[in-house]
Amino acid sequence: MKKLVNFRPIVFLALSLICGILLAYGIILSKIIFSVIISLVYLISASYFLFLHPFKDGIKKRLFIFVFFFVIFLVGFSTFSISLNNYKKADLDNHYYTVSGKITDIKKTEYGASAVISKVDLKGIKSGKTKYKILLTIYGENDFDIGDYISFDALLIDNGEIFDNKFSANNISKKVKYSSVISESEIKFLYNKTNVFEKINIFIRDTLNRGLEKEQFSVAYAMLTGDSSYINENVILSYRSAGVAHIFAVSGLHIGFVATAVGFILRKCKVKNSITAIAVILSCFFYSGICGFSASSIRASIMCAVLYLARLKYLKYDDLTSISLASLIILLISPIQLFTVGFELSFAVVLGILVLSKPITKLFKFLPQKIGEALGVVLSAQLFSIPILLYYFNQFSLFSVIANLLFIPIVGVVFILLLVSTIFGGIFKIEKIILFPSNFILKIINIVINAIDYKVFIFGGFVLGAFVVFYYFALLFLTDLINLKVLAKKVASISCAVICVLGSVGLNLYNKSITKFIISGSETINATIITYNNTSTMVVSEANFIYSNNALKRLKNNFGKESVDYLILVNVDSIQTFYTKFNTVFSAKNIIYYGEKNSEQESIMQKSFPKVKCYSKLEEEFNLGGIEYYFVDFGGVIGKIKDKKFGIFSNRENSFNLGNQKEQFELLIVSDSFDEFNYYFSPNKLISYILIDKYDNAIENGVSVYKIK
User: Fold this and answer.
1) Is this structure's pTM higher than 0.90?
2) Which of 17, 139, 577, 660 has its CA 20 to 30 A from that of 317?
3) How far apart are CA 33 and CA 673, in angstroms?
């Protein structure tokens, strides 16, 4: 019997670990169907290798292998369960505490800074040290930096395992359990102490900052360390739209440059192969440490280590075994990483290149070899990453293939130039001189990237759902991983592709037939996007004169678009002032505001934003995309979809009394006064923008999604 797949022990160990993690995820988050599917897939696969796979070994050895793999499966299940349960148990019950800790990450924002506090020591209802971290929002001008130990009194809010309507893998994997908001004046500086990785990171940052112009500095710092927090949002959006934002995530590209540079220097110095291999491996892991030991940098470092050690021992290097070993090590240390976008994109891109680049390259035999191979690498990476980009960012760039073909060779030169210039410029204090060429090249790159509107190349706005499995099987059947005859592989691949297309089309048509509410709130602004009949409407029920755009950014990430058809403003005094800031995140074709017609405001808007039309509404109903709306005088709007009503209200300060008027509502989205709203409207679902201790459905600083069928 011919083998269906080639057996690689490390590959199947990694898959066993992943299946265990996925099963724990499904059970803990009550995804029953998902859990059943994972269990069946694992049992069928294990049974195949136990009874049907044509091993030469006897049944006893097969049983031993099966038991060993099952133990790894249980390890994945238990480590994920323990990690998540420990995170849940670390709740501080939303109380005030006296906190001391170390700033391990900080970035400047429009209102101050956002800092991650580790080595936290608490005094309050619960006292002592905790291994979990605090995401601290600092208002006001400040000069705090990495390595600063600080103390403050603040309300610590517990972060849950679900955030922005998704599993909060990023926070859990980084052990960021609490969040708090505080003024700079309320923080006491204690002292500063940095480790070697932090010292070098700061050295790189400060050297680049002194030697480069502002925009070039932010791009260069992200390129060298993976920290893109200094990049202007519009700039990084341009890079993302062009499909080359991955240069800001330290991965195989960067680790490869480091390994190549160190190896080249040592070989020129005629250093022994064994010493060269050790030096290259240590350099890669050290560089990963400077960049915060991200999953992508660790993956690349492990694969580099396996490659050099295999060469040293004259062993055959197997790409799939190497990447599987990397995933095995990372997930044994932190099983939550499996659900982070960095881990998924990093491994998907590399896996795509390993298994799909050769078949794709064969399609370009008519081109010069180098161009054909480059196209094979870029296309295979793109094909494997598309579902992940759609899930996390709701889009991908069709221009990325061309951009990467042209851009990556330039990035290699710039990276090495930046690295060498930063080291010598910082040591000898000649940053301006030695970084001048890098500044010039980066300026040209930024001009080119920002000169083109890549939005026409953006494709997205749909989901694959569970049919993503058929998408990947359609690709895998085209590779050498599955040993079938050519005709059988083509039939299987086409069948999977058809199922994926038909299934995802049906899923997206179903999603468009329902009314979707995407809800995000904060202390400064509350907003909800409603999608129905291909029409999008945003209701801003409350916004301070100076508000933070964070809630709007979260809405955009979940909505997947930068424009809405209608913008309904409830408690907004100056339309032009509000919209000027709003327009940095979203745009709107029409604005409906509450009250009598304000000709002065509309005239100002017409001059500032000529493409936006403004309408005033007071008592009459108005129809937007098939939904009937009308304003209520106590602050908010009521909408009606067929026979179902919903309300979006702002009532933090003003109480209201509707007498004996009571109605049955499908959904209420409010700022406060749960008891009053429950009494008058008897909603099937009530969601609050702000955090109130006794209600579990408050979504302050997060995103909630609700659907009406």
Assistant:
1) no
2) 17
3) 38
Provide the 8-state DSSP code for 620. Answer: S
Tokens of 500: 């994926």
DSSP state of 317: P
In sequence order, what are the residues at sequence separation of 6 or more whose Cβ sits closer than 8 angstroms to the Cβ of residue 411?
223, 247, 253
Residue 212 C-beta-side C-alpha neighbours within 13 Å: 26
Amino acid at 477: F
3-class DSSP state of 267: helix
Please say whether the beta carbons of 549 and 584 come within 8 A. Answer: yes
The CA R_g of the chain, rounded to the nearest whole Å, is 28
**pLDDT tens digits for 110-160?**
778 899 999 999 999 999 999 999 999 898 888 899 999 999 999 998 988
With CA atoms as reference, report the closest residue to 700 among 296, 279, 157: 157
Instruction: Summarize pLDDT for 2-40 with one digit per residue, the tens.
Output: 566 677 788 889 999 999 999 999 999 888 888 888 888
Say how far residue 704 (Cα) sits from the centre of its chain. Answer: 17
DSSP code of residue 571 = S
Strands 587-594 and 613-617: parallel
How far is Cα 594 from Cα 569, in angstroms, rounded to an integer? 7
The Cα–Cα gap between 626 and 359 comes to: 49
Strand partners, 521: 526, 700
Helix (H, G, I), strand (E, B) or coil at 615: strand
Distance, in Å, from the CA atom of 531 to the CA atom of 705, rounded to the nearest integer, reads 11
569 - beta bridge partners? 540, 593
- Residue 14 neighbours by CB under 8 Å, 6+ apart: 324, 325, 327, 328, 331
Question: What are residue 100's DSSP bridge partners?
Answer: 121, 151
